[in-house]
From TrEMBL:
Keywords: FAD, Flavoprotein, Oxidoreductase, Redox-active center
4Fe-4S as UniProt keyword: no
SUPFAM superfamilies according to UniProt: FAD/NAD(P)-binding domain, FAD/NAD-linked reductases, dimerisation (C-terminal) domain, Rhodanese/Cell cycle control phosphatase
Protein name, entry field: NADPH-dependent 2,4-dienoyl-CoA reductase, sulfur reductase
Provenance organism: Clostridium acidisoli DSM 12555
Superkingdom field: Bacteria
Cited InterPro entries: FAD-bd_OxRdtase, FAD/NAD-bd_sf, FAD/NAD-binding_dom, FAD/NAD-linked_Rdtase_dimer_sf, Pyr_nucl-diS_OxRdtase_dimer, Rhodanese-like_dom, Rhodanese-like_dom_sf
Cofactor(s), names only, from the UniProt record: FAD
Similarity comment: Belongs to the class-III pyridine nucleotide-disulfide oxidoreductase family.
UniProt xrefs under PROSITE patterns: RHODANESE_3 (PS50206)
Keyword check for DNA-binding: no
Amino acid sequence: MKVVIIGAVAGGTSAGAKIRRNDENSEIKIYDMDYDISYSGCGLPYYIGEEIEDRDELTPRNAEFFKKKYNIDVLRRHEVLKIDAENKVLTIKNLETEDIFYENYDKLIIATGAKPIVPDIKGSEKSNVFYLRNVRQADDIKAYILKNKPKNAVIVGTGFIGLEMAENLKKLGIHVTLIEKLNQVTPGLDSDMSVYVEKYLRSKDIDIILGDSVYKLNGDSLVNEVALESGKVLNADFIIMSIGVKPNTELAREAFIELGTNGSIKVDTKMMTNIKDIYACGDCVESFSLITKKPLYRPLGSTANKMGRIAGDSITGGNLEFRGILGTGIFKIFDMAVAQTGLTEKEARNQGFNVAVCHNIKPDKPKYYHGKEMVIKAIADKNTGKLLGVQIVGYTGVDKRIDVFVTAITFGAKAEDLFHLDLAYAPPFSTTKDPVMYTGMILDNEINKGRELITPKILNEFVKKGKDVIIIDGRVSRQYEEAHIEGAINIPQAEFRNKARKFDKNKIFVTYCNKGVTGNALQNILINNGFKKVYNLSGGHKNYKAQIIKIDK
């Protein structure tokens, strides 16, 4: 059997390696347009920022490696121009010699990946406008910085790569301005979690412009000004466009391979396309959500590796099948870690779920053992109790918690199940009741025990609509005097039981403290004394204070 793979990096090389592990006799060839065939795309910002000093650490496997270890022929700088699916023939161009030749196959795997979205902006063709998708592009950015010693950089887009580049350029002494078309950074998060990232970025002297976009890039031979739609003009020594990627599927489309709703290649669970003997994997392929079972495009190296392995297994008669993804992601910005998995609140509501939401602010380990607070936002389905998604912003221990949540969602856990997890505990690693467990307890209280939560946004809407809401601040007087929600009555918990009897039980009450625990205690007192409608403010005053600027906007 002769297998040809179009594209290397994560998906293509994983597929080739799996084919060889299953079948010693197949002929395997990989054609790739690039110079580097297997590299860590996620490590590129850290190479530019000199966190990774040796370029070879990003490209540990070359063509010789694959030939020696797997007996796979990897041909770099070769572009497949056409797929003749009926005759199983490829038209290929050697990009170094310009020669065109033909290659037949028995089985074909398309792993053409994704490419940066290039906006139609005047001036974007100039040489100091960069994209970051491969090692050569990283080389170009690094070389430009070394040669020109730039002082100001503008990054367009605030996704993973944009923010990672902001950190690394800042560490090189370059002033960074981020431009984001939306009214929040980190488009993949809900806005009430992105505020924490935005505040942290500003504390690191990163300029942020939200709700605006690039109109024109000014300059003669090089860009020296960025003109925005709002009329603002920014000085810039170079620009990095980081507004996302799209699947590289022109070759597949021209071969009449079926594409999904977002232009990525549609495959079944065995990674087979609609055309017999043609498979696809990696960033060019449409995935689907484990939760909704609907199509989902989230190009990540981890998913590409998984898809490649399954494609290689399928071709050689294996039984592996793709099970879908949650869209899990994590990145670092300076000392902050940002992670997410599953559905955001916005996505869950759009999908028609009856949503329960909580904001849990807890340290990753005891304060006496240098614990640092993390904010966990969790979304669950009130009808089934099942966990739907989680977002975490913190400093240490974020990766550990997100992976627990990923595992729980993957296996259909309910919010109430989280409390019963037998998680590892010792002071250097966790609190006695881990933040994961606390998150389950909070959601369980809302879903199953009538302890409803209210988000700062909804509380603000209540007040604006003139609802007769009595807001109780259960903190000590000193905390109340420093800052409180407008109109709140300060009744510390120690005095609350006696004073609560005087309230009208038919009115709406919202209780809160600093982070939520005492607010829940006041809520319990009211409910246990026959009060009809009592909410606890999700994340307490700490979360409210973080949200209020965005809410007022």
